[in-house]
C-alpha cells in the first residue's frame, strides 16, 4: 500500500535523513539543501521541461550535479531525425547555483554565459521559459514559451529513500495541456498549437553513484477532457510508494505497481504496460529512440528515450472506461554513473 501524505512537513531531519517517504499530489515537502549531510559533490538539482510540437520535441534543462552545471536546449524530429542540440557546461558550481526549493512558489532562475541566457519564471497559474543563444553550428536560438499551469491541478510528488540513510530523491512532475509562444533554432521556426502539451520533471536529491531508472509520461486532450500519465520504476526503495498515476481533468488517480512486457534486447519492439489495480493498460508502438550517451572522465550516462504511439484504456474512479488511441508519449531507460 503506497503511503499517501497530505500535510506539510520537512523533508530531512537534523541528520540529513528522509523523515517520511511517500507520495503526494502537491508539494507538501519542505526541501532545504542545507540539511543535507552528504558528500558536497553528491547533490543533484534540475528543472527539465519537455514540450510536444507535433513531430518535434523541445527539451530545455537547467541544473547541476555539484561538480558541473548544465544548461541545454534541444529540438529534434521524431520522423526525420533532424536535430539541434545546444548545451553549455559550467564547472564546479557546487551549491552556488540557485535552484528553487519549491516548484510551486513564484521564482526566477536566470543563467547567463558569453553566448546564452536561460530564464525560467514561475508565477500564479503559469510558467515561462526563455532562451536566447548563439551557436556556431545552429545559429540564433530564440525560445519564448508560456505554459498554463492551473493551481488546482494535481501533480506527482514522491520522496524516495535509498539504502544509505543520507541519500534521498525528491521528485515533482506536472503535466501541462496549454502552451503558447515561439521556438527558433536557426532557420527552423515552430509555434505551439492547440494540441501542444508539456511536462515538467523537477528533481532534487542525493543518490548512489551508479543507478538506473525507467520513466514514462504523456499528456493529451481527448475532446474537452485532459488526460496525462506518469509511470516509473527501478530507482530507489519503492516499498513506500511508486510514482505511477494518471491524471484526468486535473485530478490524480493512483496506480499500483507496473507490470511491463518488453524485449530487453530491442527498444524499438512493442512495450506493454499494465498496472496491478487494472486501471491502466497501454501498448506502446515505438517510432523513435532518442538515444543519448555522455562519457567524460568518471561520468558514463546513457539513455534510451523511446517515443511511441500509446493505445489502450484507463478506468476512472467512477468505473467509466476511457479508450486511448494513438497517443504520443514516451518511456525511457536510463543507466547512469555520475
Could you describe the largest sheet, including whether it forms a barrel? 9 strands, antiparallel
Helices and strands, in order, run as EEEEEEEEEEEEEEEEEEEEEEEEE
What share of residues is helical? under 10%
The low-pLDDT segments are none
Please give the count of helices.
0
- Could you tell me the strand content as a percent range? over 45%
Question: Assembly type of the shown chains?
Answer: single chain
Distance between the termini: 32 Å
Number of strands: 25
| Average pLDDT reading | 95
Q: SS-based structural class?
A: mainly beta
Q: Which sequence of strands runs across the widest sheet?
A: 20-19-18-17-25-24-23-22-21
Whole-angstrom Rg: 19 Å
Overview of the molecule:
The protein is mostly beta strands. Helices cover 0% and strands 61% of the residues. It has no helices and 25 strands. The chain has strands at 9-10, 22-24, 29-30, 43-53, 56-64, 68-77, 83-91, 107-113, 116-123, 126-135, 139-148, 156-161, 168-176, 179-185, 188-190, 197-206, 210-222, 225-233, 245-248, 251-254, 258-261, 271-275, 280-296, 299-315, 321-337. β6 (68-77) and β7 form a beta hairpin. The protein is globular, with a radius of gyration of 19 Å.
At a glance:
This protein is mainly β and 338 residues long. It has strands at 9-10, 22-24, 29-30, 43-53, 56-64, 68-77, 83-91, 107-113, 116-123, 126-135, 139-148, 156-161, 168-176, 179-185, 188-190, 197-206, 210-222, 225-233, 245-248, 251-254, 258-261, 271-275, 280-296, 299-315, 321-337.
Amino acid at each position: 500500500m503506497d503511503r499517501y501524505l497530505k500535510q506539510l512537513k520537512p523533508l530531512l531531519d537534523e541528520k540529513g535523513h528522509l523523515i517520511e517517504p511517500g507520495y503526494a499530489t502537491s508539494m507538501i515537502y519542505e526541501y532545504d539543501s542545507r540539511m543535507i549531510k552528504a558528500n558536497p559533490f553528491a547533490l543533484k538539482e534540475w528543472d527539465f521541461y519537455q514540450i510536444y510540437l507535433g513531430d518535434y520535441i523541445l527539451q530545455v534543462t537547467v541544473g547541476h550535479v555539484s561538480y558541473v552545471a548544465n544548461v541545454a536546449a534541444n529540438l529534434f524530429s521524431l520522423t526525420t531525425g533532424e536535430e539541434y542540440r545546444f548545451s553549455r557546461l559550467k564547472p564546479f558550481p557546487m551549491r552556488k547555483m540557485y535552484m528553487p526549493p519549491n516548484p510551486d512558489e513564484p521564482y526566477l532562475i536566470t543563467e547567463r554565459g558569453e553566448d546564452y541566457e536561460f530564464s525560467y519564471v514561475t508565477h500564479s497559474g503559469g510558467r515561462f521559459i526563455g532562451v536566447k543563444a548563439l551557436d556556431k553550428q545552429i545559429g540564433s536560438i530564440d525560445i519564448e514559451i508560456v505554459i498554463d499551469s492551473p493551481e488546482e491541478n494535481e501533480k506527482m510528488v514522491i520522496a524516495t529513500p535509498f539504502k544509505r540513510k543520507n541519500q534521498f530523491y525528491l521528485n515533482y512532475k506536472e503535466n501541462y495541456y496549454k502552451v503558447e509562444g515561439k521556438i527558433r533554432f536557426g532557420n527552423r521556426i515552430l509555434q505551439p498549437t492547440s494540441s501542444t502539451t508539456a511536462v515538467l520533471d523537477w528533481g532534487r536529491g542525493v543518490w548512489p553513484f551508479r543507478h538506473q531508472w525507467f520513466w514514462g509520461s504523456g499528456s493529451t486532450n481527448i475532446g474537452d477532457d485532459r488526460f496525462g500519465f506518469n509511470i516509473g520504476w527501478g530507482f530507489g526503495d519503492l516499498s513506500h510508494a511508486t510514482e505511477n498515476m494518471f491524471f484526468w481533468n486535473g485530478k490524480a488517480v493512483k496506480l499500483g505497481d507496473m507490470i511491463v512486457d518488453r524485449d530487453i534486447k530491442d527498444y524499438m519492439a512493442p512495450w506493454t504496460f499494465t498496472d496491478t489495480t487494472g486501471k491502466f493498460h497501454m501498448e506502446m508502438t515505438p517510432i523513435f529512440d532518442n538515444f543519448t550517451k555522455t562519457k567524460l572522465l568518471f561520468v558514463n550516462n546513457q539513455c534510451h528515450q523511446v517515443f511511441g504511439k500509446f493505445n489502450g484504456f484507463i478506468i476512472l474512479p467512477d468505473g467509466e472506461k476511457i479508450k486511448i488511441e494513438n497517443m504520443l508519449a514516451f518511456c525511457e531507460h536510463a543507466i547512469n554513473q555520475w
